[in-house]
Design a protein that fits this description.
alpha+beta, Cytochrome p450, 11 strands, 8% strand, heme, iron, Cytochrome P450 12a5 mitochondrial, oxidoreductase
């Protein structure tokens, strides 16, 4: 691998000092205090040097010239340097693959963990003179918004409020799927956008209807564009958007403005309705409807409530459609597992019933399939980045406070599991004595990050994935056209098939 990359990579092949310093199993205990004498200084963390450290040119050479996805470049760097290395990506980043280091990072992240911002959203906020959305906020500002949102989103039953409406959405999704006989990511994206809209806008957009209004189609297209352009910016394809309004930036601005305008309009319409009903004495909210709760939340201004909602909208649609696509892919290429899951579903709710909270609680094979899908095809390449408030020790090196740290779960999973590509949900069943349940294993498998800054929509995301899978398998057999079965996957921001997948569905007898 090392020789291959040196041969392919025009500049690195000139570096004489490159050596394989690490074996993948060489995990060290990294929880020692930062003042111990055998701790190596930050400068000694290995990584590409010379021209690769130059601003702009360095990252362009590293990620631009190889022609490979960013993950392949990172994989080669891990092969070269071991479980920790430094790389210049505009700022210096420390990149990790050892789960013990992940634990150290999360243990030291503090009360308001700092996650470096999404640069294209940051550029937008600056140019428009707007406050950053919560997803990009830091410190106290982030903390107070997140605290308010947690009350409504991270309780064990917070997603269940939407279960019955989301069942209806999934029924519509399956109806379209049955009529079409095939499915691509566009249909999955419609399903997840519709599902998140009932949470954020408290209403359906009608994206699964046969006659979608032009207005809603525009919102849908803008939502897709925002997801794609964030991925383009974050995966290094657009590097200049922070410096000038390049094409990626202009397209992003156009789409994001449309979404913000729509979200704000719906918020104020809902607020006016709440006030009217309060005056009439007919307003009722049990505190489980997110939009109504945020409107009534005394600790938030309207702008802050809007901020949370728009962060959820942009965080929620693309991510879940991509993870759902990976899950359905795994079930389609593993028909025996698909059949076992179908048996569980039919035994609990039959072939027509809705997915109820009590049935969901009993669907252990479904949950095992989703977890296994995350393990086999980890959905997000980066995303769990941190900058720590204090110095810490990672893999024996001192890492100063404020350094950008990237935790690479796909690499950690590859090292942890010899059978990384084998889809075996049974490994997660409680009846399995060998089930891994230690903290490090849980950290590398969770696609939602960890700690106070973990994904705000994780309960909703899981619920949407569960409902869609249950509803599809209740009615349809899921397969892929032969070409799609061999498609490769690569990370943009999320893991995606290199060529669009074409699922083929047939009605069950
Ligand atoms: C399977 C789908 C999803 C995946 C894989 C995913 C993954 C993530 C990850 C890795 C983070 C960063 C966590 C960290 O820094 O520790 C995150 C943050 C976030 N996610 Fe998700 N997410 C998904 C679905 C959703 C949904 C459905 C929503 C909204 C309803 C959402 C809203 C957010 C928000 C608002 C944040 C920022 C939280 C903050 O900064 O406090 N996500 N997500």
């Amino acid at each position: 691998m090392l020789t291959m990359w040196k041969r392919q990579h025009p500049v690195l092949s000139l570096c004489k000092s490159v050596e394989l310093r690490h074996r993948s199993t060489d995990f060290q205990n990294t929880t020692r205090p930062a003042d111990q004498t055998d701790i190596k200084p930050f400068q000694e963390i290995p990584g590409p040097g010379g021209i690769y450290k130059w601003p702009i040119i360095g990252p362009l050479l590293l990620f631009g010239s190889s022609g490979d996805g960013a993950q392949k470049v990172f994989d080669r760097l891990f092969d070269l340097y071991g479980p920790i290395f430094k790389v210049q990506l505009f700022e210096t980043h420390v990149v990790l693959s050892n789960p013990k280091d992940f634990e150290t990072v999360f243990r030291n992240e503090g009360k308001s963990p700092s996650r470096p911002n999404i640069s294209i959203i940051n550029a937008f906020s600056k140019r428009q003179g707007l406050k950053e959305p919560m997803i990009n906020l830091q410190g106290e500002e982030w903390y107070s918004l997140r605290n308010a949102a947690n009350k409504y989103l991270l309780k064990a039953d917070s997603a269940l409020h939407y279960l019955s409406t989301q069942n209806e959405i999934a029924d519509d999704f399956v109806k379209v799927l049955t009529q079409q006989g095939t499915m691509d990511n566009d249909l999955l994206f419609r399903y997840t956008t519709e599902s998140i809209s009932v949470v954020v806008f408290n209403k359906r957009l009608g994206l699964l209807a046969s006659n979608v209004s032009q207005e809603m189609l525009d919102i849908f297209t803008a939502t897709r564009n925002v997801g794609e352009l964030i991925a383009e910016a974050e995966s290094g394809k657009s590097v200049m958007h922070s410096y000038f309004r390049n094409r990626t930036y202009r397209d992003f601005e156009d789409s994001y403005l449309k979404i913000r305008k729509r979200a704000s309009q719906d918020y104020y319409i809902a607020k006016a309705e709440v006030e009217k009903r309060e005056k009439e004495g007919t307003f009722q909210s049990d505190g489980r409807n997110l939009l109504l709760s945020l409107i009534k939340e005394k600790s938030l201004t309207d702008d802050e409530a809007n901020n949370i909602l728009s962060s959820m909208y942009i965080g929620g649609a693309d991510s879940t459609s991509k993870s759902l696509e990976l899950l359905l892919f795994n079930l389609a290429v593993n028909p025996d597992k698909q059949e076992l899951l179908r048996k569980e579903i039919i035994s609990l709710i039959g072939s027509d019933g809705p997915l109820t909270a009590s049935a969901l609680a009993q669907m252990s094979y479904l949950k095992a399939c989703v977890k296994e899908s995350f393990r086999v095809k980890f959905p997000m390449f980066a995303g769990r980045n941190r900058a720590l408030p204090n110095d810490c020790v990672l893999s024996g090196y001192k890492v100063p406070a404020g350094t950008n740290i990237l935790m690479m779960n796909p690499r950690a999973l590859k090292l942890e599991y010899a059978d990384q590509q084998a889809f075996t949900p049974e490994r997660w069943l409680r009846s399995n004595q060998d089930r891994k349940s230690d903290a490090a294993s849980n950290l590398i498998i969770s696609p939602f990050g960890h700690g106070p800054r973990s994904c705000l929509g994780q309960r909703l995301a899981m619920q949407e994935m569960y409902i869609a899978t249950v509803k599809v398998l209740q009615k349809l057999h899921l397969d892929l056209d032969p070409e799609s079965k061999n498609t490769e996957f690569a990370y943009k921001l999320f893991l995606e098939p290199v060529k669009p997948l074409r699922f083929i569905v047939t009605k069950l007898k």
